[in-house]
Amino acid sequence: MEKIIDESKQGESLVLENKEQNTRKLYIESYGCAMNFSDSEIVASILSNQGYNTTQKLEDADLVLVNTCSIRDKAEQTVRKRLEKYNAVKRINPGMKVGVLGCMAERLKSKFLEEEKIVDLVVGPDAYKDLPNLLAEVEDGRDAINVILSKEETYGDISPVRLNSNGVTAFVSITRGCDNMCTFCVVPFTRGRERSRDPQSILEEINDLWARGFKEITLLGQNVDSYLWYGGGLKKDFDKASDIQKATAVNFANLLDMCAKAQPHMRIRFSTSNPQDLTLDVIETMAKHHNICKHIHLPVQSGSNRILKAMNRLHTREEYFQLIDNIKRLIPDCAISHDLIAGFPTETEQDHQDTLSLMDYVKYNFGYMFTYSERPGTLAERKMEDDVPEDVKKRRLAEIVQLQREHSEIRTKQYLNTVVEVLIEKESKKSNKEWSGRTSQNSVAVFPKAQYIIGDLVKVKITDCTSATLIGEAIGLSDNQ
């Protein structure tokens, strides 16, 4: 994977505020998407009530959990290497129990218990409430597994702990699962059908976060634009709903509006969008509210109509351009980021050139770029030959990455000699004398600390930049503080 974005927390061990009465120690690592990190917060909340405090020291743990990703083969290989590390520690501490959570758990199921001798339990993304029962089985000397996909579970009734939190930003999950069935993707098989969370529970979580001092939330889902609440149930069953349910249904634009009004000083982001579902009313809602951040992550995957069809992406190149045009018309300063795959089966040089020309049209602010990775069980793996040579994939990826660097530099230079709002999140990695934060457009900005503190929303005059970072000086607190 190549990326032009500095947001990765891959493999981060997570820690929350401990309870004095808890006597056991939990070590949890998360890999993959933001939803996995959000799920780890749910898991830690459940286990906190079972007597577990978290620790950052693997060797001290009574229970080790790794929350896994199956989206790329490289992600799975990384997890297997971590399991080898756990095995080495377990030889010293045989009382330690090890569990695999998340998408790899769902995809590989009992193979982990059969092949990975150090794994004591395997828990899929919809089975975390069963963890206390599974741990009881493990303590009785039995292997434990629950990877049944749910049609109802949203964890909306659980208050997540905020793991390794800066006290400023937080994730709020609004949907689970995905119905899109892209031919390259395992998510529908590992996370099940789309279902949405009660909007009232979402608003309650946001209100609680604001009361606790958080300044920004990210609404999370595999496809947030598919959010649809009509009293419960799967999105695919909406046609069977009553007339009253349909009349009072809440879609994503409605939810976004409700969240923005509930806490008008809370910055709101969302991820991830799908081009086929990002409707005009969502863009209009973003334009209407200052506190909804002006950034849309809009995965396109390819610029070729032929490849998009092979991927079962339900949008064309031309429809994507129309969507981009509408975003720029209604929100001229909106940043747009992407996901792109190089070397999908049957991809030709012309298909690749179509991708490059699409990038030239949009000039994305940043993005995630990958070579195609065949995932077992997907339609692409079952029906298509992975026929693009690895050296060709790597060369095409390098060309995509280089073009994105050029576009990122164009986008950051647009901010020179302008004033932007930055929410301070942490110290700069390069200097303890500087703060680091993000603009509404999700650009990272660094500037001297002066009298400001983490959580301040400040006005920053941009004086310099790289392709990924804005550099400037704070000139005062924002009026939107």
UniProtKB/TrEMBL annotation:
<feature type="binding site">
    <location>
        <position position="33"/>
    </location>
    <ligand>
        <name>[4Fe-4S] cluster 1</name>
    </ligand>
</feature>
<dbReference type="InterPro" id="IPR005839">
    <property type="entry name" value="Methylthiotransferase"/>
</dbReference>
<dbReference type="GO" id="GO:0005829">
    <property type="term" value="C:cytosol"/>
</dbReference>
<protein>
    <recommendedName>
        <fullName>tRNA-2-methylthio-N(6)-dimethylallyladenosine synthase</fullName>
        <ecNumber>2.8.4.3</ecNumber>
    </recommendedName>
</protein>
<dbReference type="GO" id="GO:0046872">
    <property type="term" value="F:metal ion binding"/>
</dbReference>
<comment type="similarity">
    <text>Belongs to the methylthiotransferase family. MiaB subfamily.</text>
</comment>
<keyword id="KW-0408">Iron</keyword>
<feature type="binding site">
    <location>
        <position position="103"/>
    </location>
    <ligand>
        <name>[4Fe-4S] cluster 1</name>
    </ligand>
</feature>
<dbReference type="Pfam" id="PF01938">
    <property type="entry name" value="TRAM"/>
</dbReference>
<comment type="subunit">
    <text>Monomer.</text>
</comment>
<dbReference type="InterPro" id="IPR023404">
    <property type="entry name" value="rSAM_horseshoe"/>
</dbReference>
<keyword id="KW-0004">4Fe-4S</keyword>
<feature type="binding site">
    <location>
        <position position="182"/>
    </location>
    <ligand>
        <name>[4Fe-4S] cluster 2</name>
    </ligand>
</feature>
<dbReference type="InterPro" id="IPR058240">
    <property type="entry name" value="rSAM_sf"/>
</dbReference>
<feature type="domain" description="MTTase N-terminal">
    <location>
        <begin position="24"/>
        <end position="140"/>
    </location>
</feature>
<dbReference type="InterPro" id="IPR013848">
    <property type="entry name" value="Methylthiotransferase_N"/>
</dbReference>
<keyword id="KW-0819">tRNA processing</keyword>
<dbReference type="InterPro" id="IPR020612">
    <property type="entry name" value="Methylthiotransferase_CS"/>
</dbReference>
<comment type="function">
    <text>Catalyzes the methylthiolation of N6-(dimethylallyl)adenosine (i(6)A), leading to the formation of 2-methylthio-N6-(dimethylallyl)adenosine (ms(2)i(6)A) at position 37 in tRNAs that read codons beginning with uridine.</text>
</comment>
<dbReference type="InterPro" id="IPR006638">
    <property type="entry name" value="Elp3/MiaA/NifB-like_rSAM"/>
</dbReference>
<feature type="binding site">
    <location>
        <position position="69"/>
    </location>
    <ligand>
        <name>[4Fe-4S] cluster 1</name>
    </ligand>
</feature>
<keyword id="KW-0808">Transferase</keyword>
<dbReference type="InterPro" id="IPR002792">
    <property type="entry name" value="TRAM_dom"/>
</dbReference>
<dbReference type="Pfam" id="PF04055">
    <property type="entry name" value="Radical_SAM"/>
</dbReference>
<feature type="domain" description="Radical SAM core">
    <location>
        <begin position="164"/>
        <end position="411"/>
    </location>
</feature>
<dbReference type="InterPro" id="IPR038135">
    <property type="entry name" value="Methylthiotransferase_N_sf"/>
</dbReference>
<dbReference type="InterPro" id="IPR006463">
    <property type="entry name" value="MiaB_methiolase"/>
</dbReference>
<dbReference type="GO" id="GO:0051539">
    <property type="term" value="F:4 iron, 4 sulfur cluster binding"/>
</dbReference>
<keyword id="KW-0411">Iron-sulfur</keyword>
<keyword id="KW-0949">S-adenosyl-L-methionine</keyword>
<keyword id="KW-0479">Metal-binding</keyword>
<feature type="binding site">
    <location>
        <position position="178"/>
    </location>
    <ligand>
        <name>[4Fe-4S] cluster 2</name>
    </ligand>
</feature>
<dbReference type="Pfam" id="PF00919">
    <property type="entry name" value="UPF0004"/>
</dbReference>
<feature type="domain" description="TRAM">
    <location>
        <begin position="413"/>
        <end position="476"/>
    </location>
</feature>
<dbReference type="InterPro" id="IPR007197">
    <property type="entry name" value="rSAM"/>
</dbReference>
<feature type="binding site">
    <location>
        <position position="185"/>
    </location>
    <ligand>
        <name>[4Fe-4S] cluster 2</name>
    </ligand>
</feature>
<dbReference type="GO" id="GO:0035597">
    <property type="term" value="F:tRNA-2-methylthio-N(6)-dimethylallyladenosine(37) synthase activity"/>
</dbReference>
<keyword id="KW-0963">Cytoplasm</keyword>
